[in-house]
Amino acid sequence: MNIQELVIGEVKKAVKKNIDDGIFPQADIPEIKLEVPPQKEYGDFATNFAMQSARVFHMAPKRIAEELIKQIGPEYLAKTEIAGPGFINFYLKPDIIYKELADIIEKKDKYGDLSDNGIKIQVEYVSANPTGPLHVGHGRGAAFGSALVNLLRAAGYQVESEYYINDAGNQIDNLAASVNARYLELLGKASELPENGYHGHDIIETAQRIIDKSGSEYLALPDIERIILFKEVALKEKLEVLKEDLDSFNVHFDVWFSERTLHPEAVKSACNVLLKNKAMYEKDGAKWLRSTDYGDDKDRVVIRDNGVPTYLAADIAYHKDKYERGFDRLINIWGADHHGYVCRVKAAMDALGFDSSKLEVLLLQMVSLYRNGELVKMSKRTGQSVTLAELIEEVGTDAARYFFIMRSLDSQLDFDLDLAKSESNENPVYYIQYAYARICSIFRQTAEAGIVQENNVRLDLLTDETETALIKKIMAYPDEIQLAARDYAPHRIANFLHDFAADFHSFYNKCRIIGVDAPLAQSRLALCGAAKNIIHHALDILGVSSPEKM
């Protein structure tokens, strides 16, 4: 248990004692949060709990704070003070800081990994139709989703990541028909793209590869047979390219789930349950979900009047399968344009007898690319949407991932291509990686100077304000992991890491290692080692590399 948790525990005990003594009324206690004050004179930690609970306890914040600090006085606190309208500031004894740092150093690169909490979570993300290359919007979802998986695992959750392959339905039929049209066109035959076909240059490339491999031999096949053949060829190729793009973006899935496996049996089984539960009815030859019974604005068609399932039918069967796999929580990351779809899927889960609150849908807002201050709408290469592969080629995986993650998922993102490529302190990912490279450089230089790291060092020699600020930031890391995981907010780790790099650079600029007394040099080396582990651990969560030289 870290210091923050201990302090929060003390506040909880004080609240309970005041309730038991009748000073505070019985009530649902708001969440107790700690923050690190921006100025040293306001203590090591502070809480605004007294102000947050004023309405609950029907008391003035200052009175609540006064009653709380009467009950708070553990041995690791030097003092507790009330500030302003009701803030409670906590001042740690110096020795507890050094004891905590010693424990952190002992944990090495495992510091930041929280205990297994036994909660099983599935995270499904990207799940783009395999009909063309991934674009930058998919890239944001891929970066966020993979970082969320890493974050939840660090926070002690048992996480399985999944990609849902939309390999059935009209979009795949249109893909095959589009490849067929381009195939015929390249061989000089009359052809026309289907109305809802795909016009990307990648379709022409797929058709050309078929010709390069097999020439015109497929012209002899009837159209239907040729299109069926091209469907499998194109789907396999698109999936391979998609997996290569994701792999180069440090995105890896535990499960690739094929929509085809749902048709027809899983869809039929889900519909039978809905019919049995009277949650589905027939009208005008179609089968409808009574989604209005669960808060939707209208009922939805599940099976069309021609007997063909809608996309919703497959999604119902798919989510039924997810629930039956025994996860405690299901997280879907969808584009913001799917916001209206959330209610109907949740309605179907409730209608099937599942708890729809276990399904959480996170909506991904749009990405806008800017170069030289101007909006980039199209790829220079193809005249179409900028692909993820093109973005990686221009700014690199590390910058692309960090820039996608550093903003909250529910905010629109303006991606500055020039900033992402710059090697300056204004580029946040460069600034962070430079801090890591600096630490690696320190260890190389001290080794060359004959300074050998020792195990037992005097951590209480770390008294400079930049040293204590860095120690406190290190101490705050597990709490940041916990809170970021709770809120599904990997951007908190990105922001924490940027602040942490700033604290390290301040320490580096003020505190020498070579040329100072040996005990102090050893203490500062130990602090550098702990800082190095923090940066590496957090960059791993973000899926960003930790370069030893820059």
Automatic annotation (TrEMBL):
UniProt domain Arginyl tRNA synthetase N-terminal: residue ranges: 5-92
Reaction(s) this enzyme catalyzes, per UniProt: tRNA(Arg) + L-arginine + ATP = L-arginyl-tRNA(Arg) + AMP + diphosphate
Subcellular location field: Cytoplasm
Keyword list, A-Z: Aminoacyl-tRNA synthetase, ATP-binding, Cytoplasm, Ligase, Nucleotide-binding, Protein biosynthesis
EC number(s) per entry: 6.1.1.19
One term of GO molecular function: arginine-tRNA ligase activity
Placement of sequence motif 'HIGH' region: 128-138
Pfam families: Arg_tRNA_synt_N, DALR_1, tRNA-synt_1d
UniProt keyword DNA-binding present: no
DALR anticodon binding domain residues: 432-550
Enzyme class (EC, first level): ligase
HAMAP family named in the record: Arg_tRNA_synth
Family to which this protein belongs: Belongs to the class-I aminoacyl-tRNA synthetase family.
PANTHER family (alphabetical): ARGININE--TRNA LIGASE, CYTOPLASMIC, ARGINYL-TRNA SYNTHETASE
Quaternary structure and partners: Monomer.
Name assigned to this protein: Arginine--tRNA ligase
Species of origin: Pectinatus haikarae
Encoding gene, per UniProt annotation: argS
